[in-house]
Amino acid sequence: MPRLYNRKTPKRDEATIQNAVNAVLNGSSKKAAAKQFNIPRTTLSLHVDNKKAEPNAIVKIAGWGRQTVRSSICFKCQQINCLFLLGV
């Protein structure tokens, strides 16, 4: 039988988060805005950083984890270019 999930913290109001993000973008510090709107600084920081990266996008938390490395193709290209420059 599956267990029921109970949130440990209440879900934040999107309007409050948006107001806090706008306050930070208009010059307020993250610490002051977090205290004024009663939002954790880490939550506010994630939303602000995401908003700066995508100004017209809906505010959402960025994905976690390691970024994809696409250096294998570039490494092969560098080897070919190096061999070409050496005249091999």
Describe the overall structure.
With 88 residues, the protein is an all-alpha fold. The protein has a domain at 10-62: Arc Repressor Mutant, subunit A (Orthogonal Bundle). The chain contains four helices and no strands. The protein has helices spanning 14-25, 30-37, 41-53, 71-86. Helix 1 runs antiparallel to helix 2 (30-37) and helix 1 (14-25) packs across helix 3 (41-53). The termini are far apart. The mean pLDDT is 75.
Keywords:
88 residues; mainly alpha; Arc Repressor Mutant, subunit A; 4 helices; elongated
The general outline is elongated
Number of helical segments with 4 or more residues: 4
What's the β-strand tally?
A: 0
Q: Can you tell me the CATH architecture of the domain at 10-62?
A: Orthogonal Bundle
Instruction: For the record, give the distance between the C-alpha atoms at the N and C termini, rounded to a whole number.
Output: 66 Å
Largest sheet: none
Structural class, by secondary structure, is mainly alpha
Describe what is shown at a glance.
By secondary structure, this protein is mostly helical. The protein is 56% helix and 0% strand. It is built from 4 helices and no strands.
